[in-house]
Specification:
alpha+beta; six-stranded mixed sheet; single chain; 17 helices; Dipeptide-binding Protein, domain 3; seven-stranded mixed sheet; 3 domains; 530 residues; Dipeptide-binding Protein, domain 1; D-Maltodextrin-Binding Protein, domain 2; globular
Length: 530
Amino acid sequence: MRLFRGRMAFLAAAPLLALAMTAGSAEAQKTLYVVPHADLRILDPLQAAATITIMHASNIFDELFAWDVNLLPKPQMVQDYKVSDDQLTYTMTLRPGLKFHDGSPVTTKDVVASVDRWMKRDGIGKRLAGVLASLTATDDKTFVFKLKQPYSWVEYSLGNHAGNFPAIMRYKEAMTDPMTAIGADAQIGSGPYRFVKEEWKPGDEVVYAKFADYVPRSEAPDAMAGGKMAKVDRLIFKIIPDAQTAASALIKGEVDFIDGPAADVLPQLEKASGIVVSKLAPVGGFGAIRPNALHPPFNNPKARQALALLVPQEDYMRTAVGTKNWNECFSFLVCKSVYGTEVGSETFRKADPARAKKLMEEAGYKGEKIIITSTKEIAQIGAQAEVLLAGLRNIGVNAEIEWADWGTTLTRFLSNKSPPGQPGYWNIFTTTNSWSTWHNPLTNVGIILNAEGSWAGWPTDAEGEKLRVQFIEATDQKTRMEIVDKLHRRLWEIVPYVVTGQFDQMYAWRTNIKGVLPTSKLVLWNISKE
C-alpha cells in the first residue's frame, strides 16, 4: 500500500505541469483550483456522511434549511414558513426562482420525495420520521409537515450537516431506493455549481461549473446558510495525495487552496510568501477511534475502555496535528461546545497501559489478530492509526493496520459486519470529525445506541439510548443540560468510541483568494480570485 501511495503521488503531480503553464491565463483567473482532503469516491450523499461527499453535495444540491456558523438553522430553499399554535403543523413555501441544472423547476413533488428518501437513511432523518404524521404538498410551492407530537428539532434536522446531507433532488432520483446509490449521471441538483460529469477523472480531478440560473438568497453568506454566491466560473478539485506535492503546488501558484494540509507541511506554508494559513471553524474538530462492537473483543465494554487508556492524547495529537493547534478533550460531545461536558471521564484522563492490558484480558482477549482499517490519504487519520498500533502492541495485542485509499476504507467501515476471519472484517477504524457533526446528542451518530440506527461500529446500550432520546424529546435547555451529564457518565462506562484529542483544522490558500467563510465544513461559494 505504500507503493500505491507513491504511485498516486507521482500521477497526481503530472497534471500540474500542464496546469502551471495556464495558471496566468484568463481561464485560470476564473477557475478555483482546490486540493481536497480526500478523493471523491462516493457521490450520493445518502450513502456516506464523509466530509468530501458533503462538500460535493453542497456544491451541487441545495437544502430546505442550512446551519449558520453557530450551527443555528436558517431557511435556505424555504422562502417562509409558519408553525401552528399547537406546534404540530409546519407549513413551508419554496422561494421563487429555484431550478435544477437541467432547467426544470424545483417543485414540492421533488421536495417531498427527497425528504422521504433522506429520512429513511439518515439517523437524524429517522428521528424526524418517527414523530411525523404526514408530509404532503398542497401545491407546487407549498408543503406541510404534520407531527404526532411537538418536536423542537424540525428546522435543525432539515438543515443537517452532521450526517447524510439532506439534498433536494429531482423526483426521478429521489424515488431511488435509499440503499441504492445514485450515480454520476444523476448528480443534477439546484445548487450554485453543477457537476461536470464529462470532465470527472476519479483519482485526478472533479470539475464543477457555475450554474448561471442559480438565484441566491438576499442575505449575506453565513457558513452553509445565507446567499450562496458562485464568484468563479469553474471549481476544480485537484486530487493530490502527497502532502508535499500539494504544498509545493500552492506555493508555486499551480493551485489556489488546500483543504486540510498535513501537519508536516504547515511550517513550510506558514513561512511562504503569498500564502494564508488559518483555521475556519470557531470550535475545533477531533480525532476518534471507533471499535467494532459487534464482535470480540470490542463487543465487551472493558476492551473499549482499554483503548481509552492505551496512549496519552498528546501522542495522538502531536503525531497527527503537530506541536500546536490542539488540546486535550475528554468529551464525547466536543469540548468548548454547548454540550461539551467531560463528566465521567475522571478515571480515563491519564494513560495507563498496565490497566489497559488487564481490561483486555478481562474482556476475554486471547491473542486474536486485531485489524485496524485506515488510510494514509488523510494524514491525520493514518497517523492516529500508527500511534494506536504501537499502543496495542505495547500491551501485547496482536494488531496490524490494513491500509487502503479513503474511499475503500470508508466503504469497508460503513458496510462490512463480517465476523472474524471473513473478507473485509475489521476491529478498529480511525477517523477525524468536525465540531458541527458530533456536538449534539441528536446529531452525534457515534452515540446512537440502538440496533436499528447505530452507526458503523454498531454499539448498543439500552440505558444510554434512553437518555439520548430523553435529551432529544426535552423541550427546554435546562432539562437538556441535566440529561447530558447523565448521558455522558454512561458513555464513559460503555465507550462507544475514544476521543484522541481536539484540534483546529487548518487550511491554506493564496493571498489573492478572497471571501473564504468561517465554517465548520469548508464551503466554496463567496470565494473570488483576484
